[in-house]
Structures are given as structure tokens and as C-alpha cells.
């Protein structure tokens, strides 16, 4: 019986066995995105990073004699393509630019996923996951930058090359002149909330980044199977606490708690009692540290000053009702609310997708994430289970967080899992995987 991936190989008349080393896709385009993340941010190019590197990726894929699609990849292209007719609903040039940027980001991410699937020889799981873990560390560092310099934003960036007519837009300004923190002054608050956001424009983006990247980092450390890697993980988890307290980010807490509970449930169902014990002990210690640090008090204080839960509920209702007025193509971009200063379609990836791209776009977006979660649910080892959990937590966070920036992390992680599962002969996708750095092919 043929492998499920063989039927999805674009045939060029050359057998895989005939391929030489010259046909291997180079690793540098993906590594530039991962390890160059701080540089892109410092230059104000973070929102354009995957678009920039997708150009050489597409060129390499085009000139290669064959490439492979594995199950779970096509929905990413389907969602990006559906944005094109939805752009016709945009009524202003500024919003059209926003839709064009999002289309470029999602199409580039889909190309990156295909590239990683086909670059197995040069981009083994170790190299991709190490790069994502590096970004996790940088996001933690960004939290400290936001704590120490909350009113500062980067100014010597590519934004200096753009005309004022473009950079005067608040959304564009936050992209090309990145702030280190989001300063909020709700009505009735005694003092402003200085919430770390770097390297993201908004504090919720920082929390979502931590929630998505932490299980990826845990998966990477487990795959290394070394005491040094484990101590590195512990130190980084402790380092997250101060900026997490200052951010008072409820979604991050819910996301991390959900990941841990999900992994514990899966371990219990598999009868992995020793692994379950370790996860339980570490989780209990982490929860104790967060409680003693004042994290929960910070959340309560901000909630008392600004009841965002009630406001979100009202925006969700308006978002759904107005989507019914344009159910197929949506509106292309967020629009002003009829009762609030907040734009409709900015309060979560699910609601944004539904409002901007209609119910068809919502179905494609849900298929994109949920199919990835279901296809990788049979993760055969503890590292793969944590990696799979990053996709699961993204599905949950999509309800109340925008994920355009965070899917840049989920996409490569999912590409690794789908590739290792469907292409076979994997040293990572097995019940007892070879530790990173100890295999003959670098996996």
C-alpha cells in the first residue's frame, strides 16, 4: 500500500533515489527568519520577515525538480487565496494595504511550511526547533526591555524611509517603529498600566507568543535529553515570571494552564505515570511561584480598573451580527464599532477571520489549525506531544487573541510534525526518538 505522502508528490520524471546533494534545499532562508528574528525586529521589518525570505524559498522550490505536499498543508494555501476576493470589500486605501500585508504574510507562511517539509535533509527537526526556542528566549528578553523602558520605541528603523502619509497610520507606525511596551490608561485607573509587548506591538501579542512558544521550547529541551538543556529550561521559566506579572496577561495564563492540563491528560490516558508525575510537580511549582509573585493580584487589579471581559462580550455580539450582513466575503478588514472606540474584528483571530473574510474564511482558518492539531494528535513521544500541544493552545488562543505573528511559530512546528509523520523513516516521530545531536543525519 503506498505511503499517504507519495500520492501528493509532484512528479517530474525523476525518482527520489536519483536525487543528489545538489537538489537539497538550502537551510538559510528558514534559519534567517528564526535566528535573525531580533534583527528584523530592530529594523522594523518583523511584519515583513516571512515575506522577504519567502521569495528565495519560492525560487528554490520552483527550480527544484520535484517537491512534496503532505496532508495538512493545503488548507494554509486555501485560506491565503480566499483573502483575494475578500479584499474587494475594502473601502479605504489604508485598509487595503493592511489586507495586502496579511495576504502576503499568510501566503509566505504557507510557502515556508512547504519548504520545511521538503528541506528535511538540511533542516532536520533539531535545527527548526532550536531556532524557535531561540525566539522564545528573545521574547522573554523583550519582556524585560518593556519593563525597563516602557515608554521607549525603536526609531532608527525602515520607517524612516517611508513617507509620513503611511507612517502616520497608528497600525503601520507600531509595525515600523516598534514600541517596547503598551501603555494603557483605563478610565478610573490611578496610574497607567505599563505592559511589556516587545517584540510585538501589543501586550496581548507578547502573552500569546509566550503561550505558543513555551511548549515548543519544552519539546526542544526534552528532545535534547541533557541536564544542561533542562537547567536552561528551568532558568528561562523562572525568568518569565517578572514580565508576566507586569503584563497581567490573563490569556497567557489560561493558555499555559491549558497546555499543561492537556499534556497531563494525554499522559494519563497513555499510562505514562512517571512523566505525568514530573509534569505535575513542575506545574505545581510554577503555579506557586506565579501566585507568590503577585501575578493573580495584578490581573485582578487591571480587571477592576478596566472590565475588558464585558466589553469583549459586547464586541463579539456586534461582530457576529454584522458578519451576517456580509456572510460570504466579510469586510476585508476591521471596521469601527457602532458603539465603542475599538474596531470590530480585532478581538481574537476567530472573530477577526469571520468578520474580515466571512464564514468561508472562518471555515478555512479553522480547518488550517484544527486539521493540524488532529493530524498530529498521535504524537508518539513526550517531546512530540509538547510540540503538538503548541498547535492545540493556538486553537484555544484564537478565540480571544489575534495570532498573525504567532502563527509564524506554529507553522514551522507543524511542518516538522507533518513531515516527520507522513514521510516516514523519522528519527523524531517514534516512541523512543534519537536525542538531538546524536543521530547520523543530524536529526
What is the assembly state of the chains in this entry?
A: single chain
Helix and strand pattern: EHHHEHHHHHEEHHHHHHEEHHH
Radius of gyration: 22 Å
Mean pLDDT: 86
Task: Please tag this protein with its features.
6 strands; two-stranded antiparallel ribbon; 443 residues; single chain
Structure report:
The structure is a single chain. By secondary structure, this protein is mostly helical. The chain is about 60% helix and about 5% strand. It has helices spanning about 30-35, 35-40, 50-65, 75-85, 95-120, 125-150, 165, 170-175, 205-225, 225-245, 250-270, 275-295, 295-305, 310-325, 350-375, 380-395, 405-420; strands at about 10, 65-70, 180-185, 195, 335, 345. α4 (about 75-85) runs antiparallel to α5, α5 packs parallel to α17 (about 405-420) and α10 runs parallel beside α12 (about 275-295).
